[in-house]
Amino acid sequence: MAKETVEVMVEGGKATAAPPLGPALGPMGVNIGQVVAKINEKTKAFAGMKVPVKVNIDKDTKEFDIEVGTPPSSQLLKTEAGIEKGSGNPLEDKVADVLIEQIIKIAKMKESSLLGKTLKEKVKEIVGTCNSMGILVEGKPAKDSIKDINEGKFDEEIRTEKTELSAEEKAKLEVEKKKLAAEMEKRKAEFEAKAKEIISSMAGQERGTIKAKLKEAKIPDAMIKELLPVEGAAEAGAEGAAPAEGEAPAEGAAPAAEGSAEAPKEEAKEKKK
User: Fold this and answer.
1) Per-residue CA distances from 241 to 97, 238, 246, 249 (Å)
2) pTM for this model (two decimals)
3) Contact, 28 vs 6, CB < 8 A?
4) Residue 200: CA count within 13 A, CB half-sphere
5) Residue ranges of domains in the chain, CATH in brackets
6) For residue 162, what are the contacts with CB-CB under 8 A and spacing of at least 6?
7) Residue-wise pLDDT tens digits, 11-61
8) Residue 171 near residue 161, CB atoms below 8 Å
9) CB atoms within 10 A of CB 21
10) CA 97 to CA 168: how far, in whole Å?
11) Nearest Cα to Cα of residue 80 among 211, 194, 160, 170
12) How far is the CA of 103 from the CAs of 68, 71, 107, 180, 206, in angstroms?
């Protein structure tokens, strides 16, 4: 049985017979309209996203099947949450909140590539990804939401495969996202002020000692890296540099010999006499 595969990228739910799909399918002898309809049915959940699609065609019978690839769970979560990236410090900073319906939607999108045997198990896998991205689920950290799922709090939504949100729910999530962003900025400013205070109070001490103190104060690693200069870098830049005109020499530098430039001239005058 000879098979041919056509691979294309389509926008979820919006495939057409126009290029690149139509011309690629034309020579295969399949019903292009049926193929397009099937692709749109299988990709409608990916509205607004480009997804890879494989059309496997039996060259003898002209029968076909559709395989739809999916973006990573993290990408789908970013789209659902309306964020560009996850949190750099997910334990402390939360960047968005999503509802169980959105988790169910992503679990269904990724159904064929998740390990869970039931939709409930697959939902918990997606919630696990939220944990590493700093995304709340139903207003709670992911580990608490998994506990709620285990206790059956969302059994009805999972059983009915509910994936739609009301306009009111969407509006509330937007408000929550802005609130989380403001809290994160405030916390960042507090961490930065504390870090600068520690660095200033420990000036002259070894970098490793200062770094340990910053970690003890729970300053995020990214901020430590940004604010704490590499040991010796400042000294290397200044060491041996000549002072600008009118400037005092650096502390500890040997002063120039007084009148050294004029000494040879004075000696020459004496000889002439």
Assistant:
1) 54, 6, 14, 9
2) 0.62
3) yes
4) 6
5) 3-68 (3.30.1550.10), 73-165 (1.10.10.250), 179-227 (no CATH)
6) 100, 101, 104, 156
7) 888 999 998 888 888 888 889 999 999 999 988 878 777 888 999 999 888
8) no
9) 21
10) 14
11) 170
12) 19, 15, 6, 19, 48
Structure tokens at 224: 């430590």
Q: Give Cα 181 distance to the centre of its chain.
A: 15
CA distance 158 to 149: 10
The 3-state DSSP class for residue 53 equals strand
d(CA 176, CA 196): 30
pLDDT tens digits, 170-194: 899 999 999 999 998 998 899 999 9
Residue found by looking up tokens 């590499």 in the block: 230
User: Tokens in use for 203?
Assistant: 């000036």
The CA-atom distances, in angstroms, between 67 and each of 2, 41, 61, 118, 162 are 18, 12, 19, 21, 24
Please check whether residue 130 is in contact with residue 142, taking contact to mean a CB–CB distance below 8 angstroms. Answer: yes
